[in-house]
Amino acid sequence: MRARYRSARGKRILSSRLQLVLALLLAGLALTAITRRYRSKPQETSEADGAAKASWTPKWLWASEPKQEQWPETLVVYIFSNTDPEYFNNLKFFLKWGVREGDGAYYIIVVQEGGKSPMVDLEEVVLPGNARLLYHDNECYDWGTLGWIMSAGMVDVEDYKYFIMINSSVRGPYAPPYMPAKGGIQNYIGMRREIPAWHKRLTSQFDNDTRLVGPVISCEGTPFEGNPNGEWRAAPHVQSHAIAVDQVGMKVLQEEGKVLKCHTNHWDNKWYAETGASLAILEKGYNMKSLMKRYEGKDWRDEKSWDCDGDRELLAGMESNFAALQDAMFIPGKEGVLQTSDELIGVAQAYERWMEQQSAGDSELLSAVFPDIDEVKLPLVAMMHERGPACFDFAYYRSLNTDLQQYATDEQLWGHFLHFGQFERRPFRFTCDWDPPAGHDWAGYPIRSDGGAALSDTEKVTDPKQRRRVIRPEARQEDNAPDAPQQEDAGASAERKLKRRKVLGEGRRWAEGLAVEAARQAAHRDERTKQAGKAGAGLPAARRQLHKLAEVRPQLLGAGRLQDQHTELSHSR
Questions:
Q1: Which three-class secondary structure string do you get for 207-250?
Q2: pTM for the complete prediction?
C-alpha cells in the first residue's frame, strides 16, 4: 500500500507539472498571436464607419513600428467672400500662417461666388494635402454655409471631434504655427521655435462642461427683425468671425434647427444664428469660453453675467500689446478698419511685418517698430532656472495645458515651461515661496548682439516699453586705454559666466532632444505619406466626396447645382 501511495502521488506531481508546461505554452502562443496582430498593417474600416482606423502598438510589446496618425480630429471651415478689398489679403494671410500639413486639422476653404462678390481664381493656389477648396454661391451667411456643407453630406459630424468656423472679415491667426529662430537665446542653443498649432488654443478649452469657444465673447444685443422698438435678444454670444464647437455642441445646434439654416436676411441671421447658437448651448445647460483673460472662469449660464461686466464692444478693455494680440487671435480685417488709428491693430500690423521679415530670413528686424521678443527672454529664463523645478506644480501645468501631453516626463515639461511656456501666458503655479537673491540683476546675464559682443551697460534699457534690439554693439575700449573702466572682479565674472553656460547648456541639451524627436517624427511622416498613397480606398467619406467635387466642379457650376435649396435671394455680407 505504501508503494502504491507513492506511485499515485508521483502521478499527481507529474500531472501538475505537465499542466503548468501546457499553460505556459498556450500563453506563449497567445502572446505571439497578439504581437503579430498588432504588428500587422493597419486594417481599414468600411465606408460606413467613416475614417480609416489604424492599428496600434501597446507599450509593452516590442514592435518597432511607430503608431500611425489617425484622421485629423479638427475640421476648420474658412469662408471667403470677395466683398472687401482686404478680404483676399486676409485669406492669403490665413493660408500662409494658419494652414500647415499634419497639424491635426482638416481645412475646407469655401469660396463664396455670385451676387456682389467679384469672381476670384484660386485654382493656382497650392494647398497641403489636408486642405481643399469648395465653391458655393454667396447666398448664406457663415452659419448657413456651414449647415449647407453638413446637410449636403460632405462632412459627417461623427468624423471630427471639433469644428472651427472662420470668415474672411478678420485677419489671423496671430499665433503663427512656425517661426524660425533669428536671435537671442535661440541662436546659442540651436533651437527652432515650434509653436503648437493655433487651433489647439481653442480646442484645448473644451471640457465636459464647455461646448462653445471663441476668441471673443460679446454682449451686444440684437432686435428681432431689426425693429429697435420690438423684442431684443441680449444674451452673450461667441462672435462668429472665429468660433469653435465640439461634437456634442454641434449635435445640439443641429437639433435646434434654426442655427444652421440658410438665412438670407441680416437680422434673421443675427437673431437665429449668431446669438442663437450661443443661446442654444446655454439653454442645454452647457457653458462657453473665450480667450479673453477678464472672462476666465466665468459661468455664462448665470444671467447676472450677461452684461459682460459693462463691456459690450468686442475689444473693450484689451491692452494694446503683443500678449493682447495673441489673446484676440483675430482682428477686424476690413479696409476701413485697418486704416484706423486703433492701437491693437497697429500692433498687429507691426507684428505682421515682423513675421514676414522672420519668414524671409532678414536678420535686420524692425528694431524701431517692434521689439525682438527673444532679447528680453534670457534674464527671465535665468531667474526661473535659478528658482528650479522643485516646487513647480507639474500636475497643474499639465492639466490646464492639454496640448502639452506629448511631454511625458517632468524634465521635458520643465524645459518647455522654461523656454516657452512662461512667455505664452500659460497658467502655472509653484507650491512654495521663493525669495530671489537680494540686489541681483538678472539682466546682468550677458545677452549678445548680432555682432557677437556682450552688450555694454550703456546699451541696457530699464524701461521695457523702450527696450529694443541693439543691431550694432558699441565700440569697446582696450584694457590699456587711459579711460578704461575698472575690471570686474575675476571671481564674480567667472561665476556669472558659469551660470550663463549652465543655463544655455541645459537649453541646448533640451533642444537637441527635441531635434531628435522632430527628426524621428519627420521620418515617420514621410513613411506615412508613402503608405497613404497606396491606401486611397480607405480615405473617409468627407475627403472622397471633396475629391469628387473638385473633379466635377466646372460641370456643377455650369448646371447651377451648387445652389442651396433653402434660398432664392442672393446677397452680399
A1: ECCEEEEECCEECCCEEHHHCCCCCEECCCEECCCEEEEEHHHH
A2: 0.52
Burial class of residue 376 (count of CB atoms within 10 Å of its CB; 0-12, 13-18, 19+): middle
Identity of the residue numbered 524:
H
Tell me the per-residue pLDDT of 240-287, one tens digit each, with 9 for 90 and over: 889 999 999 999 999 998 999 999 888 899 899 999 999 999 999 999
Chain position carrying cell 570686474: 488
Instruction: For 128-145, write each residue's pLDDT tens digit.
Output: 889 999 988 888 889 999
Which residues, at least 6 apart from 205, have a Cβ–Cβ distance to it below 8 Å? 213, 244, 289, 291
The runs of H, that is alpha helices, within 40-176 are 87-97, 142-151
User: Do 514 and 413 form a contact (C-beta atoms < 8 A)?
Assistant: no
Grid cell 491693437 is found at 344
Q: For the chain, which domains are there?
A: 74-318+547-559 (3.90.550.10), 373-469+492-529 (no CATH)
Count other C-beta atoms under 10 Å from residue 486's C-beta: 5
Cβ-contact 78, 114 below 8 angstroms: no
Residue with grid cell 494635402, as numbered in its chain: 129
- Listed ranges 96-100, 284-288, 344-348; the one with the highest mean pLDDT: 284-288
